[in-house]
Write a structure and sequence with these properties.
- The chain is an alpha/beta fold and about 475 residues long.
- It has 2 domains: about 190 residues, ABC transporter type 1, transmembrane domain (ABC transporter transmembrane region fold); about 210 residues, P-loop containing nucleotide triphosphate hydrolases (Rossmann fold, 3-Layer(aba) Sandwich), CATH 3.40.50.300.
- Helix content is about 55%, strand content about 10%.
- The protein starts with 6 loop residues before the first helix and ends with a helix.
């Protein structure tokens, strides 16, 4: 839907208008035939030019729709950016207002130029329409006047046929207009058809999540590779490893190593280009998507909150179906309860001040704790933490490490981090490099190996040691 037009509904309306116009055409065509049989085919054939002009415009508009849509999306993004509270500081401190304004005006200018092209094309098609109408109706009226002057028809017949020609012409125009509108709607619906024809990746439903909730599952990556659409290289390359039942696995590596992509593969948000992921020996593809999601409680790098209450955000349910005791316990375990308890409305405080007058805005670290509480409240058998300490202060980070064992009790967990010093509390560490496993073992084993892991660990830890020497000196 755009500009108030719904192509799917408009198609049915156009069909009704077409049927109505065809009936009018037959009725008034029968009347005109009494005056002259030649008038009917002449008046009928002449609108072919109108039809061709309209069809040409529709096709041109369809081929340019993607460009218009892209420009409209960009303009909407720039328009919404200044309204985002999270961007306010950057916009002010870096004096970005003029740049945003110039970008918006540039996109608006491009949109205006494209709209001028559309209006110009539409105008040309209308000019052809008017020219045909002039020739068609002018010729018909000239013939009737000639017949009246020759005495072939009287005044009453002249008035009848004159009115019939006018109505007949309008019904022909209605047929052409309805047909062109159907054609335009059909082209617009092509976007919907493309969406509906997009390959569905939902599983077969052979496996049920209820069989996996009582114990920590084993997870196997069997020769898994993944490449993004349009990319030349694979992000994940022939990856094979096993997460044992109840194991706490740490995944580390530099930026771009493929850690987040692997997380999204495990969560079922992406599907392997090749290879297979199995849960307790059951292929991932045997689960319905929504069923599979019930097995995993993730905390992603990017935090997204809506305008619901804190309790509803943690429980992912409305107030009526929220288990408040469970939510409170999760918030305490995530280290956010003291903050929430101090709010006037407690856990019923709404998020997003733009929507809720008495709402609250959480800091980056607090929002990350809220997402952790949500994962703990879900209590799924697989816990995935993707850089969960990125926005936490050192005290909150240390508390998370101390609580990690209790959080993951009875679960299989994956802890993703780019800081190698955070992996000591995990059972095993995998160092990912260019989408492959570079090294694997416990923290102590990898340090003793004196390979890439130790090299990265030394690089990261040297600043703490040097700063400690400076402080002691």
């Amino acid at each position: 839907m755009w500009d108030g037009v719904v192509p799917v509904l408009d198609m049915f309306k156009s069909v009704l208008r077409l049927l109505e116009s065809v009936l009018g055409y037959l009725l008034f065509g029968s009347v005109i035939a009494f005056a002259s049989l030649w008038l009917v085919p002449i008046l009928t054939v002449s609108p072919v030019v109108n039809w061709l002009a309209g069809r040409a415009y529709n096709r041109w508009d369809h081929t340019h729709r993607e460009k218009m849509s892209t420009l409209e999306t960009k303009q909407a993004c720039v328009r919404k950016l200044p309204d985002d509270f999270k961007c306010a500081k950057d916009i002010r401190i870096y004096s970005m207002a003029d740049w945003i304004r110039e970008t918006y005006l540039d996109l608006t200018g491009q949109l205006a130029a494209e709209n001028r092209k559309r209006v110009g094309r539409s105008f040309l098609s209308r000019i052809a329409d008017l020219f045909v109408i002039l020739l068609r109706d002018g010729g018909a009226y000239a013939l009737l006047i000639s017949m009246f002057l020759r005495g072939e028809i009287d005044a009453a017949q002249f008035v009848l046929y004159f009115a019939a020609v006018s109505s007949f012409a309008s019904w022909i125009g209605g047929i052409v207009s309805a047909w062109n509108q159907m054609h335009a709607s059909s082209l617009s619906i092509c976007f919907l058809r493309d969406y509906l024809d997009y390959p569905e990746k939902d599983g077969t439903g052979e496996a049920s999540p209820e069989n996996f909730r009582d114990q920590a599952p084993e997870i196997v990556f069997d020769h898994v590779s993944f490449r993004y659409d349009g990319a030349e290289d694979f992000t994940i390359r022939d990856l094979s490893f096993t997460m044992k039942s109840g194991e706490k696995l740490a995944l580390v590596g530099l930026n771009g190593a493929g850690k987040t992509t692997l997380v999204k593969l495990l969560c079922g948000l992406y599907h392997p280009t090749s290879g297979e992921i199995r849960i307790n020996g059951i292929p991932q593809s045997h689960f319905r998507r929504q069923d599979y999601y019930r097995l995993i409680a993730p905390v992603f790098q990017d935090v997204r909150t809506a305008f619901y209450s804190l309790a509803e955000t943690v429980s992912c349910a409305d107030r009526e179906h929220t288990d408040r005791a469970k939510v409170e316990n999760a918030l305490k375990r995530a280290g956010l309860w003291e903050k929430i308890e101090a709010l006037p409305d407690g856990m019923d405080t709404k998020l997003d001040k733009k929507v809720n007058k008495n709402g609250t805005e959480l800091s980056g670290g607090e929002a990350q704790k809220l997402m952790l509480a949500r994962a703990l409240c879900k209590d799924a058998p697989i816990l995935v933490l993707d850089e969960p300490t990125a926005a936490l202060d050192p005290i909150a980070e240390a508390r998370l490490y101390g609580e990690y064992g209790r959080m993951t009790a009875g679960k299989t967990s994956l802890f993703v981090s780019h800081r190698l010093a955070t992996t000591a509390f995990c059972d095993r560490v995998i160092l990912l490099e260019d989408g492959r496993i570079a090294e694997e073992g416990t923290h102590a084993e990898l340090i003793a190996l004196e390979g890439k892991y130790k090299e990265l660990y030394e690089i990261q830890s040297q600043w703490y040691r040097e700063n400690g020497k400076v402080a002691s000196a």
